[in-house]
Amino acid sequence: MTEASELQELEKPTIAIEKELQKSYLDYAMSVIIGRALPDVRDGLKPVHRRALFAMRELGNTYNRPYIKSARIVGDVIGKYHPHGDTAAYDTIVRMAQHFSLRYPLVDGQGNFGSMDGDSPAAMRYTEARMTKLDQEIVADLDKDTVDFVPNYDNSLQEPSVLPSRIPNILVNGSEGIAVGMATKIPPHNLSEVLDALIALIQDPSLSIHQLMEMITGPDFPTGGFICGRAGIREAYETGRGVVTMRARTHIEPRGKNGESIIITEIPYQQNKASLVEKIALLMKDKRITSVAEIRDESDRQGVRVVLDLKKDEIPDIVINQLYKMTPLQKSFGIILLCIVNNKPEILNLKEVLEHFLVHRRTVIYRRTAFELRKAEERAHILEGLKIAITNLDEVVALIKGSSNPAEAKAELIRRFELSEIQAQTILDMRLQRLTGLERDKIIRDYNEVLEKIAWLKKVLSDDNLVSELILDEFRQIKEDYGDERRTEIIDAPDDILPEDMIIPEEMVVTVSHTGYIKRNPLDLYRAQRRGGKGVRGMTTLEDDFVTNLYTASNLDTFLFFTNKGRVFWRKVYELPLAGRAARGKAVVNLLELGDEEKVAAILPVSDLANVDNSQSVLTVTKLGRVKKTSVSEYKRPLRKGKFGLTIKDEDEILTAALTSGDDEIFLVTRNGLSIHFHESNVRIMGRLAAGVKGISLGDGDEVVGVAVLKSDDSILTVTENGYGKRTAVSEYKLQNRGGKGVFAIKTSERNGSVVGVLPVDDEDQVMLIANTGKVIRMAMDTVRIIGRNTQGVRLINLDQDESVVGLSMLAREEDGGEDEGTDEEESVIDESPESE
What we know:
The protein is an alpha+beta fold. It has 4 domains: 45-164, Topoisomerase II, domain 5; 249-328, Gyrase A, domain 2 (2-Layer Sandwich); 369-462, Orthogonal Bundle (Topoisomerase, domain 3); 505-816, 6 Propeller (Neuraminidase). The protein is 29% helix and 24% strand. The strands form 12 sheets. Strands 14-9-8-17 form a 4-stranded mixed sheet. The protein has a 4-stranded antiparallel sheet with strand order 10-11-13-12, with helices on one face. The protein is elongated, with a radius of gyration of 45 Å.
C-alpha cells in the first residue's frame, strides 16, 4: 500500500461497532417488517402474495383462461418480482389455493395442493393453477393509475406497491406472520358480514365498535366449528389483541344395540386432522381415555368425518368433555390485529381496520376517476377535431388533395381550422369509410357521450357523497356475487371443564379407619355374600386399627372434613385414593393442608353439593358445650385450602360434626357424667362463621366428651375410662331445653372414672373400645343388656394396672359382608381382647 493510500485510510471516520450493529440490525428489522412478514392494511397482502397475484395477472392466468403450470408462475414471481427461493413462492401459491387455509381462496389449483392431514403438495412441475374469480376484484382497475408502481428489485420492471382491492382482504382472509420483535395473527371473517359493516360505516361514520360487532359477530374460520364465548372477540375488536376458544363440531350417532358413536365433522382452524386422530389414539393406548373402543377416520372429498365408537353404556357427553380437555378438539386462537399502515406497523382495532380500507377505496376511486377523466378529455379532443372535419368535409378534402405532402396538409389543417397536431393527424389518418353518413352520425353521437361522461366524472371528483354511493354499489354487488353464510358458529362460553365433567358417575365404597386412613373402591368389588360367608376384606389394618366408617357414594359426591380448629375442607370422592381391596389407603392428614396440632374431627359425605337444598344441616359441637347448626348450602363454594366452618375460642375446639335432617334429637354427655337431651329445633340455623349457642352449661373443669344424633328410639352406650359402662334406653333421658346443666348419665365414681364417650347403638351394632396401651376389644351390643339411667354400669373390658379406656368407636356394620357364596377372604377385624364380663 502506498503512503498516500495509507494516509487516506487513516483519514476515514471511525464508527463504534455498537452503533453500526444497531443501525444495521434496525435496517434489517424494518426490511423484514415492511417487505416480508406483515400485510398491508389496504389489500391485506404481504409482498410475496401481492407479487404472486400480479405475476399471474401479467401472465393472463385469469379464472376464465386455461390453467398453467405452477412452475411457470413461480418462475415469473421469483425472476421478475420476488428474488427469493422458489419454495417460498410455491408455498405461498399453495396456501392461497387451500380451501381449509383461506376462507376465500385466491388461487384455483388443479392437482395435489396438500390436505388437512398435513400431506405435502405435489411438486410445482406437476400442479397447475390460475386466479380465482374473486381475484378480479382485488386487481380491478390496476391499469387505471389507481395505485403507485415502484421498480422491481433490479429496476428492470415496475410492480404495484399495493393492489386496488375492492374486498377487505385483511379481514376476509386474515393473515399471519412473524417479524422482528412483533407478530400478526388476523383471523378470517365472513365476507358478507364485513361488507355489511362497511356499508353501515359509510352511512354512519360515528358507529361504535359494539355496533359494528352486531354485523361482524366474530371470526369465520374456513374449517367451521365453534367459537366459545364473545369476551375474547370483543377484547380483540376493541384493543387489537384477544384470545378466542375454538371447538370442533361433533354429534352423536346410535350404533344399534352396541352403543353410540361420536362423530367429528368440523375441527378447529389450522389443526392437523391426522395429528388429532393420532393424539386420541395415544390417549386410548395410555388408558387416559377408556370409554372409546375404536377410532376411524372416514373423511373424504365431501368433508371431515372422524368416528369414535364408544363402549357400551358409556356417556357421550363425558367423553366429549375429556376430548375437549385433553386433545386439540378445543384450541385457543390468539388474535393480533397488526398490519402495515403508511409504511409503519400498527395494532388496530376493528373500526380502524375498516376505516383504513374505506380510505383506500376512496383513494382508488378518486385516482380511477381522474384517470378516466384524462382519457375522456383526450378522446373528446380527438372527436372534436373529427367533428370539425366532417362539418367542413368538402373544404377538408380539397385542402388535403391540394397539398403536395402529408406534412403540408397537416400544417394547412392546423392553420385553417385552428386544430392541434393530434387532431390534424387524426383527420389525416381517418379512413374513407368514416365519411359515410352513418359514420358521421356516430362521431357526433360519440362526441356528445364523451362530453356527458366528462361532466359526470367531474361531478364525482367534486362530490364526496357520490364517491360513497359508488363504493356502496360496489360492496352490494360483491356481496351478491360472492357472499355466503357463516361456517363458524359462535356459542355462549361454556363453564370451565372441571374434572368431574370428565368422570363417569360410579358408585364407590369409601372406608375410613380409626387411625385416619381413607380409600375408595368400586361398589361391585364388595359383592354380596350368602349367610355364613367369611366376608370380604375391606382394608388391611394395623393391630390397633379398624374400619370405623363405611360410606356408599358416587365418585362425584363431596366429603366435608371438619378439623378440631374449626376449618372445613372439601374433597370429591374421585380425589380420594383408589386403593386395592385389601390396601390400607392413605392417611387423611396427607390429603389436607392441616396446620400444627390440627386434626380431623369429623367426615361428612354430601351428595350433589352444588345443588343441595336447605333440608339438611350440619351440626357442630365443641368441647366447651357450644352447638351450631348451619345449612349445608353454606358450604357450596369450596376452597382447596379450606375455610373456617365456625368461629371458636382459642381454648375450645370442635369435638364432632354431623348431618341432621331437621327432626333429630341431640344428646351431649360431659366428662363428669352429665348429659342433656334436646330437639335440634332448639338450635336455630346460623351462618357459616357464627360461633354457635350454648348446648349445655358446664361445671368447673368439665367438658363435652360425647355427642349422639338420635334418628330413632336407639339406646345410648356410655363408657368410662376404667372400663365400665352401661347401655340405657333413650326414653330414660327426658327432652330438655338446650343450655341447662342436664342430668347424670352415669356416675363418675372412683370405680368408674371419667366418661370417655357415648354412642347411639342397637342390638346389631358392634363397638370397639380402645385402651391407652393399644388394647382393642370388639363388643357386640346384643351382649350388653339395657339398664336404667341411675345405675353405675357394668364392666365392659378388663384392664391391667395403669391401663385406661381412651376412646370408643362404632365398627362399620357393612364390613362383615352381605349374602353370596362364602369366600376365603378374611374379615377386616383385628385382634380381639378376651371377652368382657
